[in-house]
Design brief:
The protein is mainly alpha-helical and about 550 residues long. Among the domains are: about 150 residues, no CATH class; about 60 residues, no CATH class; about 180 residues, no CATH class. Helix content is about 60%, strand content about 5%. The chain contains 21 helices and five strands. A hairpin with a 5-residue loop joins strand 1 and strand 2. Helix 11 crosses helix 13, helix 12 runs antiparallel to helix 18 and helix 17 packs across helix 19. It is globular and about 70 Å long.
Length: about 550
């Protein structure tokens, strides 16, 4: 099993040598650098990947249907998911619907299907509803696919870090870190949209990294057969088909179709792809590489990422589009009516006129949703809202379930007679991971800018596009669990730093041993920290003194 920590170092790549660095390291030629390194332990890599993923799945599916209640915003998304599969759009529910649903009864309003104003896109809710179609309109049903994608995130995390580092050991460690993060764990067991956004974003950027490797190897092979001439552009025609980039576009579309917050990462990583392509052509000696890459690769990349994502996004509203006339009639008589105008009363004839009107209605609907997000929540407050600057240290987690004051002897409570027991679910990231990640982010600035390590730059783009935009909305209720989209990039930088701690392959045995002890100790610390918090992540019965031992700060209450 390879434990190479520095894939990007020149001496980690074998091939024809043209020169040496000042410290004596060999520098391979351009084509060898573009081709990268072979994968020496593919079978072992998949064994490790599947083992860590299986562990994550066991943890996330354990007692998934408990507590049997609507937790936090499940009250919206579970019912929206059911509505989508029954009606094709979200419907209005009576205030007392939750109790009836948990008792196995549907209120009469559920069959009438009066359209309701929903303020988030549909994909996550379609998946929530898919679980309800299989397991019923109950907690196990609406949480099932959250657990599925939460488990798959661990698999993708292992493969991404393994590709970035060339190390199965570091890839496995990255999977373990995600497996035992409390925030990702709790979101994997709730019917909220953020776990779907995080999964699709992680999968999309992983496809872009795979595309980077694939494209550079392809570029090297083509350039070897047709060397670059004076003023040349490098290979173009042979790079038109980019399957990994197409997959990334589909996944970005699904992420945006779960929550609009994925739009900023799409833009940021689109620019990063252009930078990667420019660097690859510059390696071949292409002059004016940025300009030529923008034409040769950039336009097609825009199509693969932005256009494909847009098509996927619009397609995700198919149920809405098929029932646009019903939604128009509903909203034409309320505060959203002015968005539609007079054409609501004109029934189009034929498929294309109907589609045009439906798309126009969808556009106006999005205007109403945007108005809600930008203006409708400015003066709102929430007990568990938090500022983005506190997310990386998990200062203010969100409590989504709490059963308090359980007396000794009730439900098996073994608290002292002068105390009580309780059950709680708090969406709290494992502190050891997030606090360690904050330190790793500080090093990332140096590694990305001074050392020009593209892998740290990749993670830095992830941080900037998933975290910084929320500072614009700090004047309204936003929550620390939004940071689950930051988590994969935090684990990337932690894994890269752990690689540095392990040391290069040529280091002395003593150096490697000390590095392995230090890196391994951090991973073990994260696992132990998660285990200690387990009762307050899973609604376990604990005494109040035991609960206080785990709630370290007043802001966690």
């Amino acid at each position: 099993m390879t434990t190479t920590a520095e894939r990007s170092d020149a001496d980690a790549v074998e091939g024809p040598v043209r020169s040496r660095t000042a410290d004596g390291r060999t520098v391979p030629d351009a084509l060898t650098r573009l081709r990268g390194r072979p994968d020496p332990d593919r079978a072992i890599g998949w064994v490790v990947t599947l083992a860590v993923t299986a562990l994550a799945g066991v943890l996330r599916f354990w007692h998934l249907g408990k507590p049997r209640d609507f937790l936090f915003d499940e009250t919206y998304y579970a019912k929206d998911g059911w509505s989508l599969w029954r009606h094709g759009y979200g419907i209005s529910w009576p205030d007392d619907a939750n109790g009836a649903i948990l008792e196995g009864r549907l209120p009469p309003e559920a069959t009438q299907g009066d359209p309701a104003m929903v303020v988030h896109p549909e994909v996550g809710k379609w998946l929530i509803g898919a679980g309800e179609q299989v397991f019923g309109f109950e907690p196990l049903g609406w949480r099932f696919f959250s657990a599925v994608v939460g488990t798959l995130m661990v698999l993708v995390m292992v493969r991404l870090v393994r590709r970035l580092t060339g190390s199965t050991l570091l890839g496995g460690a990255a999977g373990v870190l995600m497996c035992f993060d409390g925030l990702q764990f709790t979101l994997s067991r709730l019917a909220l949209l953020d776990i779907y956004v995080a999964f699709f974003l992680l999968s999309a950027v992983s496809c872009l990294v795979a595309d980077r490797d694939w494209g550079r190897r392809r570029l090297a092979d083509l350039a070897e057969r047709s060397p670059l001439g004076p003023g040349g552009w490098g290979p173009v025609r042979g790079l038109l088909w980019r399957p990994w980039r197409l997959a990334a576009g589909v996944l970005f579309g699904l992420a945006v179709a779960s929550k609009w917050s994925a739009l900023i990462p799409l833009a940021g990583f689109g620019l990063l792809v252009l930078a990667w392509d420019t660097g690859a052509r510059r390696t071949l000696g292409v002059r004016w590489a940025l300009l030529k890459t923008s034409v040769a690769d950039g336009l097609l990349a825009f199509g693969y990422l932005v256009v494909v994502a847009l098509v996927v996004y619009v397609a995700s509203w198919t149920g809405w589009l098929m029932h646009a006339d019903e939604i128009e009639r509903q909203f034409a008589t309320n505060s959203y009516g002015p968005y539609w105008g007079a054409y609501v009363t004109d029934d189009p004839v034929g498929f294309w006129p109907s589609l045009v009107d439906a798309l126009r209605s969808l556009w106006h609907y999005h205007g109403a949703v945007l108005s809600f997000h930008t203006n409708g929540l400015v003066d709102a407050t929430h007990t568990y809202q938090s500022s983005p600057q506190s997310w990386l240290i998990m200062r203010r987690p969100v409590v989504v379930a709490a059963d308090l004051d359980i007396s000794p002897g009730v439900e098996g409570c073994t608290a002292p007679t002068d105390s009580t027991c309780l059950r709680e679910i708090v969406m709290l990231g494992t502190p050891a991971l997030w606090w360690g990640g904050t330190v790793a982010w500080a090093y990332t600035l140096y590694a990305a800018l001074a050392r020009r390590d593209w892998r740290f730059g990749f993670a830095l783009v992830g941080l900037l596009t998933t975290w910084v935009p929320f500072f614009l909305y700090a004047d309204r209720p936003i929550f620390s669990f939004y940071a689950v989209t930051i988590l994969p990039f935090t684990i990337v930088v932690l894994s890269l730093v752990l690689g540095r701690v392990l040391g290069p392959p040529g280091a002395s045995p003593r150096r490697r041993t000390l590095g392995a002890v230090a890196a391994g100790s951090f991973v073990v610390l994260v696992v132990v920290n998660f285990a200690w918090l387990w009762p307050v992540l899973t609604h376990e019965l604990i005494s109040t003194p035991e609960w206080l031992d785990r709630i370290w700060f007043r802001s966690w209450i």
